[in-house]
Amino acid sequence: MNTYKRHRFPPDIISYAVWLYYRFNVSHRDIEDLFAERGITVSHESIRLWCIKFGAQYARRLQRRHRGYGDTFYTDEVFVKINGKQHYLWRAVDQDGEVVDVFLQSRRDGAAAKRFFKRLLKSHSGEPRKIVTDKLRSYGVAHRELIPECIHETSRYANNRVERSHENTRVRERGMRKFKSTVQAQRFLGIYVSVSNLFNLGRHLVSADHYRNLRRSAFTEWNRAVA
After folding, report:
1. Which pLDDT score is estimated for 170?
2. 159 is in which domain, residue-wise?
3. Can you spell out the DSSP letters for 45-79?
4. Are residues 227 and 127 in the same domain?
5. Residue from 120, 152, 119 nearest 136 by CA
């Protein structure tokens, strides 16, 4: 079945708009202007609908092709206000900085921690060797009941890797003038994480030539996902 059937614009334009939105801190109106400068007339509302529909499809394809995560998970949660109500954004990254999962919940008790850990186990297709968390007791509950054989570290500063990972989400949240609903936030973050992981190339850790090769591979994988 043709993914782009009954769409007036060609696949290259649609996929490029979606890539711009999830790769950079730009709005739908910004992308509309970028296209207009190149002589392409498309409304920001069309771009918004593309990002919702095709972004989810691309993310699922990227996730299916993902090569897997490391054996150490760093987990943390931050406050997110949506429509005046406080929620908690749970996040886990592996030792390479790739985001394993993000999950928005209304609580951060033991039940919420167990729901999050179950998602992680499903994403990882197995039990990690080690998890690193802060001293929130909810993590201890989930660890004891779900993965008691896994090493659980709670030492000070050990969790900095995942705490830094929240920064990019905060930037996007401000750019979007906050999330409008839990459904919208979870949908956006799920797609955003998949695209970010693909282009998480560790530029500061490799030579310029190696980085360019990695970037070419990332674009090849992206082109497969949007085909």
Report:
1. 93
2. 72-180
3. HHHHHHHHHHHHHHHHHHHHH-----SEEEEEEEE
4. no
5. 152
Torsion of CA 77, 93, 185, 81, to 10 degrees: 20
Nearest by Cα to 108 from 142, 74, 132: 142
Helix (H) or strand (E) holding 170: helix 160-175
The more confident residue out of 103 and 200 is 103
Phi-psi label, residue 104: left if phi above 0, alpha if psi -120 to 50, beta otherwise: beta
Q: By three-state DSSP, how is residue 5 classified?
A: coil
Do 103 and 58 share a structural domain?
Answer: no
- Residue 1 pLDDT > 70: no
pTM for this structure? 0.92
Mind listing the pLDDT tens digit for each residue in 208-225?
A: 999 999 999 999 999 999
Q: Which residue has the tokens 């919208």?
A: 184
How far does CA 99 lie from the centroid of its chain?
A: 6
Bridge-partner residues for 76, per DSSP? 91
Dist. CA 24–CA 34, nearest whole Å: 13
Residues 143 and 97 in one domain: yes
